[in-house]
């Protein structure tokens, strides 16, 4: 019998530079921080308590949790043609929200596909600083 899954719980992305990735994800998504790695001068008990973060951050939003884990080697780049993740898609309410997202990406200087009409939905594709393929989607 298949497992009766309710929804996705969380996704954690491996990144090369936590400062750069945090700046990107916070500017684009504005998700509130749920957990973040303690500062370097924190006591060892605190560092041990949050070791599951691997120096990263976890954000919460209505759809679940998104984490950033900064353990990739400098210069490594995401490639959706390797085994694993192809892309990560975030649902927005309407085409109006998607158009606003396009304007935000323009304001931030983030390259994107422009809003595409796929018939049953509209999508806006872009990439994070590690080349991870992301998209916003508005279903009809």
Topology at a glance:
Layout (H helix, E strand, L loop, with lengths): L9 E5 L3 H11 L4 E4 L7 H6 L7 E5 L2 E6 L18 E4 L3 H14 L3 E6 L3 E7 L5 E7 L1
Describe this structure in words.
This protein is an alpha/beta fold. It contains three helices and eight strands; from the N terminus they run βαβαβββαβββ. Strand 7 (121-127) and strand 8 form a beta hairpin. The protein is globular, with a radius of gyration of 17 Å.
C-alpha geometry: globular
Into how many domains do the coordinates divide? 2
Q: Helix coverage percent of residues?
A: 10-25%
Whole-angstrom Rg = 17 Å
Order of the strands making up the biggest sheet: 1-4-3-2
Find the count of extended strands (DSSP E, 2+ residues): 8
Report the sheet with the most strands, covering strand number, pairing sense and barrel closure.
4 strands, mixed
Number of helices: 3
Q: Tell me which oligomeric state these chains represent.
A: single chain
**Strand/helix succession:** EHEHEEEHEEE
Terminal-residue CA separation: 33 Å
Low-pLDDT segments, ≥5 res: none
Mean pLDDT: 95
Q: What percent of residues are in strands? A: 25-35%
Class per helix and strand makeup: alpha/beta
In brief, what are we looking at here?
The chain is an alpha/beta fold and 140 residues long. The chain folds into two domains: 1-73, no CATH class; 86-140, 2,3-Dihydroxybiphenyl 1,2-Dioxygenase, domain 1 (Roll), CATH 3.10.180.
């Amino acid at each position: 019998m298949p497992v009766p899954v309710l929804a996705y719980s969380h996704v954690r992305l491996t990144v090369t530079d936590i400062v750069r990735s945090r700046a990107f994800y916070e500017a684009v998504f504005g998700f509130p921080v749920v957990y973040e790695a303690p500062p370097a001068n924190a006591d060892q008990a605190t560092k041990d308590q949050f070791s599951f973060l691997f120096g990263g951050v976890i954000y919460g939003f209505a759809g679940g949790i998104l984490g950033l884990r900064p353990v990739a080697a400098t210069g490594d780049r995401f490639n959706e043609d390797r085994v694993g993740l192809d892309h990560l898609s975030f649902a927005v309410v309407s085409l109006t929200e998607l158009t606003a997202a396009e304007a935000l990406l323009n304001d931030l200087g983030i390259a994107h596909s422009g809003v595409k009409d796929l018939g049953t939905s509209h999508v806006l594709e872009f990439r994070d600083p590690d080349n991870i393929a992301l998209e916003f989607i508005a279903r009809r």
